[in-house]
Amino acid sequence: MYKDIHIGHLILVKWKELDFSIERACNFFKISKTDVENMFSQKSLDTELLLKWSKLLEYDFFRIYSQHLILYSPPSKRTNAESLKSKKLPEFRKNIYTQEIIEFILEQINSDEMSKNEVIEKYKIPKTTLHKWISKYSK
User: Fold this and answer.
1) Source organism's superkingdom (predicted)?
2) Which of 18, 33, 87, 135 has a Cα-to-Cα distance from 125 of 20 to 30 A?
């Protein structure tokens, strides 16, 4: 899991994995070869560009950020009453764990980097959920 996200590099990795031609990206974005190559060196990109890369490479680059938030964002200190009064945007549940997150968490435990209790406390994963993962995915 990426704690320090360099989205341009991650796009380049996926790009190379799929073996796309630079001309295809130039045509898709309607920009020069230099501009495409410059995007690979960018630590962050505009959301519209990131959406286009996601479509071109058929990979959800936004999920990298979502998974980062699930694992590393601090818990909310607002009460439910406060949050209900001020909602302007939709709320998304934080407990949607992808396979990558489950594997990351289990790797933390299996490599002795973190104890089960540390994982539960740090990532706010319910104890029963963690035990289900361990019984289901551990070999």
Assistant:
1) Bacteria
2) 87
What CA–CA distance (Å, rounded) separates 83 from 91? 10
How many C-beta atoms surround the C-beta of residue 67 within 10 A? 19
Largest CA distance in the chain: 53
DSSP letters spanning 104-117 = HHHHHHHTTSS-HH
pLDDT digits (tens, 9 = 90+) for 36-67: 999 999 999 999 999 999 999 999 988 888 88
**Angle value at C-alpha 100, between 96 and 103, nearest 5 degrees:** 105
pTM for the complete prediction? 0.58
Secondary structure of 30-63 in the HEC alphabet? CCCHHHHHHHHCCCCCCHHHHHHHHHHHCCCCHH
Rounded CA-CA distance 123/139 in Å is 23
Closest CA to 137 of 91, 115, 94, 105: 105
DSSP, res 94: S
Tokens of 13: 């990795």
Backbone angles phi, psi at 46, to 5 degrees: -60, 145
